[in-house]
Write a structure and sequence with these properties.
The chain has 5 domains: about 200 residues, Jelly Rolls; about 80 residues, Immunoglobulins (Immunoglobulin-like), CATH 2.60.40; about 90 residues, Immunoglobulins (Immunoglobulin-like); about 120 residues, Immunoglobulin-like (Sandwich), CATH 2.60.40; about 90 residues, Immunoglobulin-like, CATH 2.60.40. The longest helix has 9 residues. The protein is elongated and about 115 Å long. With about 600 residues, it is mainly beta. Strand 22 and strand 23 form a beta hairpin. The chain is about 0% helix and about 45% strand.
Length: about 600
């Protein structure tokens, strides 16, 4: 908002050799900035985009510096009548990379060049910079602050009755002029000037201010959050004061327009204005009202969103659509059931594998929504239905060597990877001893509960659609509950048994070595892969049996996707980088002539 500069007169009348002393508070009537950049091979000069900012690079150097000049006009008396000047200035620290307080000097610009430079936007920046930089200091110690919020200082710039530095300022003023200029030049750090005005005590007859006429106000909605106020210029007015019709102060400005911002949409606001001339003012104008614009419109109702792409990777199905400029968010529906799937601000929707059921088709349609703060809602037309994704009705064999279990406070959970194509299956879990199905799930885990101490074996098969055949059962997987047990798996076990201690609380604990096999259903208890460190965050080193040299070494994720592979093992050890992988469980396999070693790898 425009700064709240005020202009008023205080009269202090007392005998002083027959003269009258008056004090007036004068805001800066004009401001202008200049920017010097020496960070390149040669210095460049620019008009400052922020004429109230004074900035240094923090080293006292000339690189990247800004400075500003402020004009203070006091019609009615000349500079030679001034007895005292107090500068009231509000500043704050910016550019927090500097470790010290931000500071600047206050100068009287070089008079010869200062008077030749117009107060317009089209200035010679190099000349202005030189005027300010080479001017005469009029406040001996400079001014600084370490506060990032605005702090106001009252500085004695001139006192005719004082001796030394403070009594010399008037010597640099133009005696017959009714104005003077201060410049602010950086010393160190970054300083933002929020406002500047001067308290001038001068010798003369107290002026009799003229009451200005009442201005005529016009209020117009500028946007959903702002109202533009304009009024006619009034003779003898030095400023204009704005209020709401409920008498709340808005500000005092010297121009004839003002933009009120930060308002609510579709809301009626009223304002009034009066003209000020020193200590007197006109009556307030009649209240003028304007209703802010709506923050949405019906334009979106003629728009049809377009779903432009479809992708399917590892069972994750993703649709994308083009953004609609007026939309606050989008509603996504499944075409087959008209079910609302999501309300989202994104322009993408994803089906995860657990969302997809075997034998069913999936496609989406999209509606863009423009929601108004007043409560109204506008909807776009509905997009055409997207490409149809059909979940195939198949039952592939369950992958071997991929079942494992975890335990938390004695509660055992059996886990496995998805069968490819991802997300097309129901998984059925059976007790090996009784052949009774104990659970069926679309997920890749089944909670077995708090099992008693002992050994239980489980096997899994996949099932696509209700009408499709089921896959063959996997080999049995043996879970051993207890502490210190080390029972070897029977001939039908695919894995070595995992020892799960009921007191364990680590749900991510897994066995590293899954053993080896050279034919389905049997274990080879000889050499195995040695993986260290395991678990690991960055790298693992694999020690490989000699009889596997020339074979293949590969790292798989839980979905049987190859993450890393070496098709010709030539060394007895291999280092594999895991930095780029998410924390999870992976499988490392070494294969040669139908024989395979498999080891579980945990990426932290």
């Amino acid at each position: 908002m425009i700064k709240n500069f005020t202009l008023f007169f205080l009269f202090i009348v007392f005998p002083f050799y027959g003269q009258v002393l008056n004090t007036v508070v004068v805001p800066a009537s004009k401001k202008q900035g200049s920017f010097k950049d020496c960070s390149l091979s040669s210095c460049n000069y620019f008009e400052s985009t922020g004429d109230e900012i004074s900035y240094s690079d923090g080293t006292g150097g000339a690189s990247d510096t800004k400075n500003a000049r402020y004009l203070f006009e006091h019609p009615g008396f000349n500079n030679d009548k001034i007895k005292k000047i107090i500068l009231e200035i509000s500043i704050s620290k910016i550019f927090q990379s500097t470790a010290v307080d931000a500071g600047m000097s206050i100068k009287m610009p070089n008079s010869s060049c200062n008077s030749s430079i117009a107060w317009s936007g089209f200035i010679n920046q190099q000349t202005l910079y030189s005027c300010n930089q080479n001017g005469t200091s009029i406040f001996q110690n400079g001014i600084g602050t370490g506060n990032t919020s605005a702090t106001t200082f009252f500085l004695s710039i001139y006192d005719k009755n004082a001796t030394g530095f403070i009594g010399q300022t008037i010597n640099y003023f133009t005696p017959g002029s009714d104005s003077f200029t201060f410049s602010f030049h950086p010393l160190v750090g970054g300083v933002q000037i929020h406002s500047a005005k001067v308290h001038i005590t001068y010798e003369g007859t107290a002026p009799v201010p003229v009451v200005p006429a009442t201005p005529t106000l016009t209020a117009t909605a500028a946007s959903a959050s702002s109202v533009s106020l304009t009024w006619n210029a009034v003779a003898n007015a030095t400023a204009y004061e704005l209020q709401t019709c409920s008498n709340q102060q808005i500000g005092v400005v010297t121009g004839t327009s003002y933009l009120v911002s930060g308002l609510s949409a579709s809301t009626n606001y009223g304002y009034k204005v009066r003209a000020i001339n020193g200590t007197v003012s006109s009556a307030y104008s009649a209240c003028k009202y304007a209703t802010t614009l709506s923050d949405c419109s019906s334009a979106i109702t003629s728009v049809t969103p377009e779903v432009y792409s479809y992708s399917q990777f590892s069972g994750v199905v993703t649709y994308n659509w083009y953004p609609v400029s007026q939309a606050n968010f989008y509603r996504v529906y499944r075409c087959e059931t008209n079910q609302l799937l999501a309300e989202t601000t994104a322009t993408q929707f994803t089906f995860t594998p657990k969302d997809l059921k075997p034998g069913e088709s999936y496609s989406i349609k999209v509606i863009a929504v423009d929601y108004c703060s007043g409560g109204a809602t506008y909807l776009s037309k509905t997009s055409a239905c997207s490409y149809v994704h059909v979940v195939k009705c198949v039952s592939n064999a369950f992958p071997e060597n991929a079942i494992y279990s975890t335990v938390n406070a004695g509660n055992v959970t059996l886990r496995w990877p998805h069968v490819y194509p991802y997300g097309n299956y129901v998984y059925q879990v059976f007790n090996c001893a009784t052949l009774q199905m104990i659970g069926s799930t679309y997920e890749t885990s089944l909670a077995l509960g708090n099992l008693p101490v002992g050994t239980t074996s489980y096997m899994i098969r996949t099932k696509g659609c209700e009408a499709s055949p089921v896959s063959a059962l996997s080999s049995c997987y043996e879970v051993v509950i207890g502490s210190g047990l080390n029972k070897t798996a029977g001939s039908s076990a695919l894995h070595k048994p995992e020892i799960l201690t009921q007191s364990s609380s680590d749900d991510n604990a897994v066995s590293n070595d899954l053993g080896s096999r050279d034919q389905p259903g049997s274990l080879e208890n000889g050499s195995a892969l040695v993986v260290y460190p395991n678990p690991s965050e960055d790298y693992i080193t694999v020690t490989i049996p000699k009889d596997f040299l020339g074979g293949q070494l590969a790292l798989y994720d839980l979905y049987n996707k190859v993450i890393w592979k070496n098709d010709n093992i030539r060394a007895s050890s291999e280092t594999i980088e895991l930095k780029h992988l998410p924390a999870n469980i992976y499988f490392l396999s070494a294969t040669i002539q139908g024989r395979t070693f498999i080891s579980k790898v945990v990426k932290k």
